C-alpha cells in the first residue's frame, strides 16, 4: 500500500487501485437507490394524454391483479410462481412491462411485511408499558428508567380495558404474519378511507374518483444497461424526446415503428440533468416513472438509477501491514517508510522526520511495479493513483 501526501493533502492507494484522498467511503453489499431528476411533460396533445391514460389504466389493472395473486400466495411464493405470474402478464402487455409489474408487486408486498412487523413491535411496546403501569399502585411515582402507576382509579380502569384491545390487535397481527397475510390497498389506504368522508376532505365524488384512478395507474419501467438510452420500455433521448412501448392490446395507437408511441412534448431535467445525460449517452440503465397530478392537471416524468457502492476500510486496517509515504516536490519525489510504532503523519513535522527514512528520487523516474513503490504523479500537492 502507498500513502501519498503533499501541499494539498494526503491519501492512500491500495493494491487494487486508488481509493480516494483523505477519506474512504464505506462499501456495502447493496446499491443505494435514490430518486433523481423529475420534470414536467410539456406540450402534450390531447391524443398524447389519451394514450397515457389508456396505458396507465390498462397496466394498473394488471398490477392490481398481480398484487392480489401475490398476496394469496403468501409465504408459499417461489421462483416458479413468479415465472407463472410473469407469463400471464406478458400476454396482455409485454415481457418488459410484465417484469416491471412483478417487481413492483414484490416491492409492495415486502413493504407491507415490513410495516406489519413495525406495527407488531409497536403493539408489543404498548402492551409492555401498560402492563407495567397497571402492576404499580395507583399514584405511585415513577423513576427515570420506568414509569409509575396511573394517577387515578378511573385512569387505571380505562387503561386496563385498553390493554385488552391492544392484546387482541396484537394476536390478530401475529396470526396474519405467521400466515403470510398482508393488507394492501393500491392507491393508498388514506385515500381509500377519504371516500367515506368527502366533505371533510374538501372533495367531490368526481374529484375523488379522478385522484383514485390516477393513483392506481401504472406507468413505470426499469432500466437496462446496454440498451438504447438505458431503457427499452420508456425511452428518453438526449434531446428530451419520450417514447413508450405500448402493451399488446393497445398496439393500434402506435405512431412509430415497433409498436411504440412518441409523445409530442419534450422533457428537460433542470436538476440532475448532467448526470442523467451522461448515463443516457453511455446506454446505462435509467428507470422512469410517469405520473399525473390531478390537482394541477400536469404530467411528470421522474428518472432514477442505482449508485454503485464504493470501497471503505478503517485507517487502522489500512496501516496494519505497513505503508509507503510519497511526498511530491517541484523537482523530485520523496518516499518514506514509517516505523511500526508511529503512524504516518504529514511530511515536514518533527515526529515524522525522526520516524521515517527518506529516499530521494527524480520526478521523471518511473519505478517498476516489482519495487512495490507507486509515487504520486498527478501534480504538485495532489494524491496519485495506485497500480
Model description:
The protein is α+β, with helices and mostly antiparallel strands and 387 residues long. It has a domain at 2-27 and 311-371. It is 39% helix and 19% strand. The protein has 10 helices and 13 strands. The protein has helices spanning 46-73, 79-90, 95-135, 153-179, 189-194, 198-201, 205-216, 273-281, 315-318, 350-355, and strands at residues 2-6, 9-14, 17-21, 32-40, 220-221, 234-236, 241-245, 260-266, 287-293, 298-307, 324-328, 332-336, 358-362. The strands form 3 sheets. The chain has a 6-stranded mixed β-sheet with strand order 3-2-1-11-12-13, with no helix packed on it. The chain has a 4-stranded antiparallel β-sheet with strand order 4-10-9-5. The protein has a 3-stranded antiparallel β-sheet with strand order 6-7-8, with no helix packed on it. A hairpin with a 3-residue loop joins strand 11 and strand 12. The longest helix has 41 residues, at 95-135. The N and C termini lie close together (10 Å). The model is unreliable at 1-33, 343-359 and 365-387 (pLDDT under 50).
Report Rg: 31 Å
- Per DSSP, what share of the residues sits in E-state strands of 2 or more residues? 15-25%
What's the overall geometry?
Answer: extended
Proportion in helices: 25-40%
Q: Separation of termini?
A: 10 Å
Task: Note the total helix count.
Answer: 10
Strand order of the largest sheet: 3-2-1-11-12-13
The SSE order reads: EEEEHHHHHHHEEEEHEEHEEHE
How would a crystallographer describe the biggest sheet?
6 strands, mixed
Q: How would you state the average pLDDT, rounded?
A: 81
How many beta-strand segments?
13
Low-pLDDT sequence parts: 1-33, 343-359, 365-387
What structural class should be given to the helix and strand makeup? alpha+beta
